[in-house]
Write a structure and sequence with these properties.
Layout lengths: L4 H9 L12 H12 L9 H16 L3 E10 L2 E2 L3 E5 L19 E3 L23 E2 L4 E9 L5 H9 L8 E5 L5 H10 L4 E5 L2 H4 L21 E2 L35 E4 L1 H8 L29 E6 L1 E2 L2 E11 L8 E7 L11 H19 L7 E7 L7 H17 E6 L6 E8 L1 H11 L12 H5 L16 H7 L4 E8 L12 H7 L5 H17 L7 H15 L4 H23 L5 H8 L19 E3 L7 E3 L1 H8 L3 H22 L3
Parallel strand pairs: 5-9, 6-7, 7-8, 8-10, 14-15, 14-16, 16-18
Antiparallel strand pairs: 1-13, 2-12, 3-4, 3-11, 6-11, 13-15, 17-18, 19-20
Amino acid sequence: MIVPLIASVALAQGVGPSAAPAAESMGARLAAWHDLLAAEPHMAGTPGDARVIESIANSFRELGLEVEVHPFWAYLPRPREPIVEIVGTPADMPLAEPSAPGARRGVMRLAVREENLAIDPQLAHAGLTFAWNAYSGRGDVTGEVVYVNHGTRADFAKLREQGIDLKGKVCLARYGGNFRGYKAKFAEDAGAVALVIFTDPADSGPAKGAVWPDGGWANASCIQRGSINTLPYSGDPLTPGREATEHAERLDPTAVGLPSIPVQPIGWGAAREIVRRMRGAPLFDSTWATGFEGPTLLTGGPELRVRVAVEHEPAVVRSANVIARLPGRAADGGLVVVGCHHDAWGFGAADPLAGTIVLMEAARECAAQAKAGLGPARDTLFCAWGAEEFGIVGSTEWVERERAMLQDRCVGYINLDMAAMGVNFGASVSPSLRGIVSDVSRQVPSALDPARSIFDVGAKEGILPLGDLGGGSDHQPFLCHAAVPSIGLSAGGSQGTSYHSNYDTLLWYRRTVGADYAGASMLTHMTVALVDALGSRSPESWRECTAAAIALRACADRLALDAAARARALAERFDALAHAIQARAPMDRMGAQALQQGWLDPAGLPGRPWFRNVFASSDRDSGYGAWVLPGLQAAIADADLMAAEAALDQLDAVVARMTASLGTP
């Protein structure tokens, strides 16, 4: 592959394209940012992480931005190499390697790190690690195997209905369906002694297409790492609701509810060795079938056991956010924040850097416009967050520090995590910002067809499809904790995945996603245009009210009679409120801000007090999905009438606060 000249020069000088001639193409500058930030593995709290933080801070300074490096100290355990072994009868282990480390008769040790490939020199880097799950419990256990499909709450409920006892068993779950941490939580609740999570070849392996390095899909040794923290708050597990400073008062790690059973991820090649030896009960649900050859069985039988040994060192570790400020031209006190995390499990060329490079280039573009007197009207912060992979840590610590300021000033947050993974535009957006996103999309050329706008290419019946925001990234503290309306931008469609694996390198990205950076260029233009638009426009709060009315009517169909009638009446009140807000348009920033904060309840959601936005949160049971009116959604899921009434009380209070803000009787 030929790397653009500007990228090579920038890397040699140790700086990004802030030092490059402005005439260079945006694609070349994005490639240079990529070379700079994906030069080495940089897991949070490691020396590589510190060097990336320094590179980002220096690059922002070279752009002329005001820079703060915001340190935080978080509980980020350091792993030791895990063990996963198949323990069976000697006759059933014909593939055991006698020369393998720790090998013994009748035992097969399975791979817990990716195969090195000569085609990609980055894979030989000493900073790459074995696969692991952050916050796994510690232990060395052996047990019979039970396959639990995706390990969702519904999957475990079906197992109970079928009389499958998981006590003392090792659960085998495939990725997908929910956040990996909930697989561990539900397995532990069911009495399992360990969990092994694998990549299903039908989901992201050879069933999808050629595997790496012949194609972009997961080969047999590709392993998805990741945190399994499911605490009811984001950020440092030991300092909920307050900033994790160096000397902050901390909770006891053993008392906060982190997983207690060992959990370990493996690739589909290793998982196949377990699945092919299973001799137990057949599946009761055909949709649970995996992509392995032959029938998928539910249990392994008494002759097949799996050993899982996981250890880690508890540690409070320093990392940092990098906050770069571009002063605005206006003086209305408004603020726009753009962010993406910088930490990765390895090199992170896709996750997160496919978004971080957009952040850096958007900052360069906005800074250049400001120097020409055409910059954004409102103050803009460009933020590179730390330790997102461990549980949205860095952004949460900063939001907890700046919560009051954000509630008073921030008109919107734009998130770019792993954004540029193809050329098909996508976005998940708070309702109050959807009009702005739709309008801006009419101005930006599509990467699919540069002769047409994003809107013209993607609109269906005159409407640009926009999703709801759930969880899983740095928008969560802004939206769910501080009630700041948010935008998550993306571009997808590339044929492959290297997600959270050691194969997430520059070579994989450029061969799979593209070396022209067309999607990243489109998102950069979109980000810059959104910053400009948010500099002069305020959130349209009536849109949340309309969305709430729609959601209330849908929920009413699932509620008992009295609660259903109350929900429908409340929907009418939200409709009336939406009309009243529209009648006041256009509204100044402070008025719109006050309405937006009407959704914030300081007491938070029942059982999840950190989640204070009663309009939107992540799905309680999946971690990634979006819940509109989450208190009511949880009550319906639990069939809890008292909780439903409490949720309706919270929504009554929202109407009262917004009505007071409008001065409407």
